[in-house]
UniProtKB/TrEMBL annotation:
Lineage of the organism: Bacteria, Bacillati, Actinomycetota, Actinomycetes, Micrococcales
UniProt family annotation: Belongs to the major facilitator superfamily.
A matching Pfam family: MFS_1
GO molecular function, a single term: transmembrane transporter activity
Protein's recorded name: MFS transporter
Membrane topology label: Multi-pass membrane protein
Main localization category: membrane
């Protein structure tokens, strides 16, 4: 939406700029810590409820599916009521629901609570990048987006490395509760840090502007946006599949690692904290812009995945670090590119990306278990490798220009085939 006040975004180094980044980093931590808190606990869930590895992974998929289903309604609410009110509502609801998850009496109740929790969590990623793109100067948008993604990596890491060790010495319920308390603290930081919205104005629908369906349609008719949504679906799906079943693999020969020790491999997420920001900087500096950085990041993912095939713990750790760095570099580029290419319906553009992102997490993250259960880690790696190849082929069709050359055209001329 156009901002009638003439506000052009907080410049880098300003108090407003720092407030946006700190606030969104805290919101990302709260969101992704809760979203993936059970991922490091899947072997315990499998044992506790007497279910298979793929069935246990549904506890991750239920939350990501709920998030995927909710991102578009959240984005519509954000257009009507504002970005910050929606994010504040979402994060409070998610924390409350997160505290209820450990009370689940059976696996079906757990799945239901995780689905609703994921739906509440959807209000953060559905709106965060639209809020960021409106409140931060466009000159620094790629770096800011990379910084936000860095916060999400820390959240994903925190959820895993807190829940699994705590549960090792108690049970999975205590582990999940500990993560929910951490998310509550992060939610308070978000509330206090994020500055008031200045770049947003209400949806112009009442004034004859486009409605929700039209704003969604604009982005769904854009070939570039569809390619970026495909990146989200394919790369995130493969990424979650690897992390879902890594704990099961490391519990088997020749590794035989206890779950608390196996969960420490989630520290590989720190590579994503660095790479997401580095990718944002590289996109603005290197020839070929975002496209070439996206392709390079996908190639890094593939190289890391190949290294994990070796039956050596050192190789698995090294490969996982490389794989994770590549994924978050690709995600930072693709997610930050989406609102840049949308001159209309920025929140819907980002929500469609998140729909694809978490749809891939839910579907492919679960389906990878079928390959793992039937033929082990090589089959899972081969499946994920094919997904990355398809993503790279599609990404190669994107324009290789720097960000300032990719500003969307006026609405009447910008629809792409």
């Amino acid at each position: 939406m156009a901002n009638p006040s003439g506000f052009t975004g907080h410049p880098k180094g300003s108090a407003g700029y720092r407030g946006v980044l700190v606030g969104l980093a805290a919101a990302g931590l709260a969101t992704f810590a809760q979203l993936y808190s059970v991922q490091g606990l899947l072997p315990q869930l499998s044992e506790d409820f007497g279910i298979s590895a793929a069935t246990a992974a549904l506890s991750v998929s239920a939350a990501t599916l709920g998030l995927a289903a909710a991102v578009i309604p959240w984005s519509a609410a954000a257009d009507r009521f504002g970005r910050l009110p929606v994010m504040r509502t979402a994060i409070i609801a998610a924390v409350v629901l997160g505290l209820l998850v450990p009370l689940a009496t059976d696996f079906s109740v757990l799945l239901l609570l995780r689905f609703v929790e994921g739906a509440a969590l959807g209000g953060i990623p559905a709106v965060a990048l639209a809020y960021l793109s409106e409140e931060v100067s466009p000159v620094h948008a790629a770096v800011a987006a990379g910084t936000y993604v860095s916060g999400t990596t820390i959240g994903g890491l925190a959820g895993r490395i807190v829940a699994a060790p705590v549960s090792e010495y108690s049970n999975w319920r205590i582990g999940v509760a500990a993560v929910s308390l951490l998310a509550a603290v992060s939610a308070v930081v978000f509330m206090l840090s994020a500055p008031r919205q200045r770049g947003w104005s209400p949806s112009p629908k009442q004034k004859g502007g486009p409605g929700l369906a039209a704003r969604l349609g604009v982005n769904l008719r854009s070939r570039r946006q569809l390619v970026l949504y495909a990146q989200a679906f394919l790369l995130m799906g493969g990424f979650v599949a690897v992390y879902n079943y890594l704990g099961f693999r490391l519990g088997l020969p020749p590794f035989n690692l206890p779950q608390a020790l196996a969960s420490s491999l989630f520290l590989a997420y720190l590579a994503g904290t660095w790479s997401s920001r580095a990718a944002g900087k590289a996109a603005g500096m290197l020839a070929g812009g975002r496209r070439n950085v996206l392709l390079a990041s996908t190639a890094v993912m593939a190289a890391g995945l190949a290294v994990t095939l070796f039956e050596s713990l050192a190789a698995v750790i090294t490969g996982l670090i490389i794989f994770t760095a590549g994924f978050f570099g690709a995600h930072a580029i693709a997610s930050g590119w989406v609102p840049v290419l949308a001159s209309e319906g920025k929140a819907q553009a980002s929500s469609l990306y998140n729909l694809a992102y978490y749809g891939g997490s839910s579907l492919i993250g679960w389906a990878g278990g079928l390959f793992f259960q039937s033929a082990g880690w090589p089959a899972l790696a081969g499946f994920v490798g094919l997904l990355m190849l398809l993503a790279a082929v599609l990404a190669a069709t994107l324009p290789g220009k720097r960000e300032h050359e990719l500003r969307p055209k006026p609405a009447s001329r910008r629809l792409e085939t």
